[in-house]
Amino acid sequence: MASRKTSDDRRARIEAMRKAEQSRERRNRVLTIGISGVVVASLIGFGVYVMNKESEEQEQKVAEAKAPIANEQTWDAKKLGRNHVDKAVQYPMKPPVGGDHHHAWMNCNGDVYKESIPNENAVHSLEHGAVWVTYNDKAAKADVEKLEKRVKGNQYTLMSPVKDQAGAIMLSAWGKQITAETASDPRVDRFLAKYVLGEQTPEKGAACTGGLKGK
């Protein structure tokens, strides 16, 4: 009888241990699933937050890009002639921001010209979506060098001196223009970002290479 009782007790302890182990496994599974759910929810929440933040930042950039630039001059693009001519054109503004022009454009693939270039060819570059950076003797040497670095290698930009322009530094696009005293003026970067191949471009996608080469 004692042997049988001992055997029964042993089986009872083994069964109790087995049930306890099963209970621990169930608790661990529940805990693991719970933790996994929290982690997944956190990752999803973080992902949504990042996407929303990026979307908000993008919307802000778009809004800033479309916002008017301080002291920017604007001409009605529809009233600016676009005929090809083989003679000099008397433009109402200096540098010109549009109008009839020569059939050949100035290369505007980040080209920096040390000497004056023909207005009629530069205007054709503006028609293709380029921004023309100009300066006169009032511009500091350091500012001219900074602008050269900003233009060089950047597609749809060109730079040249215009001695008789009103401002020390001027940026022109088709129908758009600003005047700045220094290259550090934040409007310089804004103008380039907004108008290089901007919405004002009459012939967006037209070439800025294969045109006239200056010095």
TrEMBL record:
Keywords: Membrane, Transmembrane, Transmembrane helix. Residues 1-25 are annotated as: Disordered. It comes from the Bacteria. The keyword Transmembrane applies. The chain crosses the membrane at residues 30-51. This is DUF3105 domain-containing protein.
